[in-house]
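Dear support,

I submitted the protein below through the web form. The confirmation email said the job was done, but the results page showed an empty box. After a refresh the structure appeared. I'm attaching both so you can tell me whether what I see now is the final result or a partial one.
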Amino acid sequence: MRCELTRCEPWTSLVSLQGDVRRVFGECDGLVWAPPIDVEESREDVVVKAELPGMTREDVKVQAQGDTLVITGERRHEADTKDRTFHRVERAYGTFQRSLTLPVEVDGSRATATYEHGVLTIRLPKSEAARPRDITIDVK
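What the results page shows now:
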């Protein structure tokens, strides 16, 4: 039996992977962005915080059902760009959609959302079935 050494070319694999991703998702002319999100859970609820600076309530839509939360919105570029030359544009603009599977089922009908200092905070009470219950122990 004969063993052969094969030279590994990791960059070739990465270039090939990059091409595959572009073919699947298509080429984009602009930046694709999604707001960063934190998800935390307490005994009573799940809290989701999303950074959405410069947006208004009308720019964002939030939906909750079961254990899924969907946040969609659009951050628009300034409309009046006449007589200006941009030398650098690093902030992302356009539409986004974030769909999150929450750690537990929530009661979307009792959810609340606030927007302060560019941070959207969504408080989602856990459904009754998902809430922990204390069980009394009978001693005999």
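Response: this is the final, complete result; the empty box was a page-load delay. The chain has a mean pLDDT of 83.
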